[in-house]
Amino acid sequence: MTTTAATDVEQDSGVEEDLDTDEAPTRGRRWVRRTLIGTTIALVLLGVTTAAAMAYDRSHRDELMPGVRIDGRLVGGRDTADVLRQLQAQVPAAAGSTVQVTAGPFTEQLTLEEMGLHSNAAEVMSNVRSDADDLGLVGRVWHRLLNKPVRESYDVRLHVDRNEVRDQLIGLGQKVERKPENARIDTSSGFVSIVPAVEGRSLDLTVTADRVFAQGERLAAAPESDGGAVVGPLVMSEPKVTGFADVILVRTGENRLYHYENGVLAKTYTVATGTPGYPTPKGNFQIVLKRFRPTWVNPDPSGWGKSLPKSIPPGPGNPLGTRAMNLNSPGIRIHGTSNVRSLGTAASHGCIRMAMPEVEELFEKVDSGTPVIIITGPPKAPVAAAPSTSIGDPNAPVDLEAG
What is the rounded distance in angstroms from the CA atom of residue 235 to the CA atom of residue 237? Predict the structure, then answer.
């Protein structure tokens, strides 16, 4: 009986071992199932929470984050579009403010509207949204649900457009612009009058635009302030001819030569001018060559001068006298003559004759390039108040009759 009992015990032990072996996988599977179920539930909850958070974030997308300040005012929680409209409403209120611009004799008023006044409100709102995006979904939801301020502050400013400023100043520049005008000689009265030169001018558009833009920016920042004044600098250009040191006027109708110094009549001379057959040309000329003790060269050896020598050297018999001043008209000169009895008459072959001492005096006073204006003039015009001269020695020898 003892043996049987031992055997039963051994059999019982084997059964127990089999039961323990079957139970281990069962417990492992249960743990896996529980883990999967927990994970699934967690994922479902996370998904639901995330979806809810995303839905909540979308529903508040157009609202400013709590704590946001713009221009020092708390605007958190307000609708972005409403705030933007309110900020942009500042532009019309400031558009009428003006800056005075002066350039030379012209003055204009430019409004901020004309200068392209605009607000950077849209840019600011874009920055506000960008900063909110940087917080991430969790950050945005956390701040909004708990009403936690983000403590962000932004400033909105009004500005003018420099290109618009420049465009507005182009019209002013056109008014200011003036081309230089040379001094000129006017003989419409029968005598010489100098019309003064006029400086050219233009508006320095670049500098003026810079100044007006800076003033416009200042005024845009404080529209209630005085717009102030801006002076646009001018660029001046000198004319080529600013005056005339000497001018010679010849009036053939009265056989007079007038010498002007700096526009003022200095002296009047009696001269001889061309005959009707060989008239002295009318028009505006100038002295192109001054000749001291000139050689006379026969200007028409086959015509009126065919009986005269080909040339005559300087000396008592020279028809040009001791001085000659060639004009830029072929064969026409202002020269001396010893035939003083011809002075005051139409006696030459087109040249302008002067008494010897007088041509020598004039020769020393004028330079090459001096304007010589020849007009007919009245036959008996009164002599202007100026020193007069005699016509020379009436007993002087008569030279050859030549121009």
Answer: 7
